[in-house]
């Protein structure tokens, strides 16, 4: 009787694409109702993803035998269904009796380092913003805007000497410099909200919007919980790139204003600093280093979880025990070694560029 059963996953349960974590390939399963999540291997995912209520366990078992060369017994099925049932993931299973967690305080941490939740229902806020902006979130609108941003960056790159000279002048004008940094700080709010709107557009949810500080730095943040469960990697990339795109869009009207002014105009020199620093702010976010957006995008493109820490763990293991490190699959060895070398070189280049820029900008 067990093999004729046709169990079905509860609607809304999220299953991720395969993800490399350390030496293992895993899939993530998440229940949006209570936020719980756990990992399973490829074989378990093969079975769980086919629990659609249409196929019987016998039919799924035959597919499994063809794929993996092994038939599942009654004990295997009872163990799997028992796990899913106790977690409340199957239709007809008793709801999971999870202890009610106390509501998270709006503010955590200390005066010098912490966070403050600004919105009671971040998902509802981003849903309203998405409804208002939906007419603009179409390819025929976004592609021309993206082209305009690329043209703007090309023009600014051609005028880099002028921008650097004007930005150096700006660093000796305290009032104008404060105004520029205020505008750049406001653009970080648009950056984070763009992540939330893009996530809503592609079927994601936003759990929290707030401020995070590590004095003297105070920035806004937007937390997307089900990033790994979006429909495709292209959608994941779109959510990751939305923040930098919003930063560049923020600069577009200032770039038009800058282009209309005469060379040497004090306002144009202030705008030069805004455009240079704003472009750096946007483009640096695309670097593949944690916790920047580029790192998240690279992790999703390659299908790797905890890329930086897992890369460091593998390289340390390789130094201590090469035989144990050889137990990693070839793809993992290549990806972790490449990231360890590439990220180290990138950090050195960034440090050299930062020292050079500081000397140029701060030298009268």
Automatic annotation (TrEMBL):
Keyword field contains Transmembrane helix: yes
Transmembrane parts of this sequence: 141-158, 170-186, 237-258, 270-289, 338-362
Keyword field: Membrane, Transmembrane, Transmembrane helix
Protein name, UniProt field: Peptidase M50
Organism the protein comes from: Streptomyces broussonetiae
